[in-house]
Amino acid sequence: MLEGTVELSAVALVCDDETVEELVDVLRAIRGEDHPDWADYRAAMVADRRLVARLRIDAVCGLARPQYAVPA
Length: 72
Fold this sequence. Notes:
Layout lengths: L1 E7 L9 H14 L6 H10 L5 E8 L12
């Protein structure tokens, strides 16, 4: 279990606002590569009214090592 706070960004309203820029950064970090059509991605984020949820973890409790985690 995680305990913490969630901060929500503003909703993406235009293709070059701070939220869309952060969504681009998040996608790049997850995929490790560029999107084939950034203009389309940006437009989709605005059309879907996407936002970013930032989870700041204050505490972790539960199993010391999840049962599904196998040592390397």
